[in-house]
Amino acid sequence: MNIVLLQTVADSNPDFDLSIVWRTIKDLGEGFLARLPYLVIALIVFGVFLIVARIIKRVVHAAGKNTRLDVMLADLLGRLASAAITVLGLFVAAVIIFPTFKPGDLVTGLGITSVAIGFAFKDVLQNFFAGILILWRRPFVVGDQIRTKDYEGTVEEINVRSTRLKTYDGERAVLPNGDVYTSAILVRTAYDKRRVKFTVGIGYPDSIEEARETIRRVLRETEGVMGDPGPWVYVAELAPSSVNFTVYFWVGSQQANVLKVSDRVATGIKNALDRAGIDMPFPHTVVLFHDATGSREGDIERERYISVRQPRGRAADRADGDGTPRGTSSRGEGAER
Q1: How far is CA 93 from CA 2, 31, 85, 97, 101, in A?
Q2: DSSP state of 174
Q3: How do residues 182-194 score in pLDDT, each as one tens digit?
Q4: Contact 186/176 with Cβ under 8 angstroms?
Q5: pTM of the shown model
Q6: CATH number of 137-187
Q7: What secondary structure does DSSP assign to 79-108, as a single string?
Q8: Which of 53, 101, 169, 305 could form a disulfide with 85 if both were Cys (CB 3.0 to 4.6 A apart)?
Q9: Distance in angstroms between the alpha carbons of the first and the last residue of the chain
Q10: 193-275, what's its fold?
Q11: CATH of domain 2-120
C-alpha cells in the first residue's frame, strides 16, 4: 500500500526522488539498530534504579519505625528518596542512549523556570515544608486534642498539605499546615492529666473553714479526681456578696473525662454545702433612698450639720421665716419624735 502511494506521488511529481525516501528510511533503521543495544542497556539500568528506589523506600520506612519516627514522615521520606533515585536513574539512562545529553544543561535551563514556579506555588510550598516540620518536630500527633485559633478538636490526620481536626461538635476542620505551624497551639492531651478549676462562693456569716473542709471531702470522694497531686481549695476573693473559693483538682486529660468529672464535682459541692447549711448567695444590691422631707432623725441631724457648716447667707436662704432650716423641725419637735 505504501509502495503504491509513493509510486503515485512519484508519478504526479516528476522531481520527486523515491530513492531519497528509501535512503532516509534505511538510515533511520540502521541508526535505530545501532542504538538498540544502548537502548536495551539504558532500560536495564533504569530498571535497576527502580528496584533500588523501592528497596530504599522500604528501608527508610522500616528505619522510621525502629527510631519511633512519625509514620507519615517516614513514608514521606521514603517517597522522596525513591523519587530522587528514580530521577537519577532516568538521567543515567538518557546519557547512555544519547551520549551528548548533559543533565547539567537541563538543570541550568530549569533554573529560571523553577523560580517562576516557586512564586506561583508559594502557598503550596509553604504548606508542604510546614507539614514536613510538623511531622518531624511532632508538636502533636494523631489522636491529640488541640486548640489553634478558633478551632478545637481531635487530630485525625497530618499530611504534607494540611491537618485535619474532628471538632467536639462532630465537624471536620481542614487547616493548612502553614497556618498551624506559625500559630500558637494548645495541646490539651500532651500529658496524662490536666488541672481544672472553678469558683465557689459562700455567704459572709458562714464558716470559711467548715466550707473548705466540706469541699475537700467532696473532692476526696468524687470518682475521677486524682489524689496526686491533690486538690487545692483556697479563698481567692472577698466579693461584694460572697466569700469566693477557687477550687483546683487534677483529672485525666481527655476532654470527655474533664467534663464528666467537673460535673460530678460541681454537683457534689452544691449538695454537700446545702446539707451543711452553708449558704451560696447570689449577687445582690442594697439601694438606700434619702428622705428629702426630713422625716427621719438621721436626715434632721444631717440638715442641721449642713446649716451650721454653711455661711450665714446661704443658711438664711435655706431657712424658713422662724429661722428653722427647711425640711426640719425645732429641737423640741425632734425630741418628741
Answers
A1: 35, 18, 12, 6, 10
A2: E
A3: 999 999 999 999 9
A4: no
A5: 0.60
A6: 2.30.30.60
A7: HHHHHHHHHHHHHHHHHHH-TT--HHHHHH
A8: 53
A9: 139
A10: Alpha-Beta Plaits (3.30.70)
A11: 1.10.287
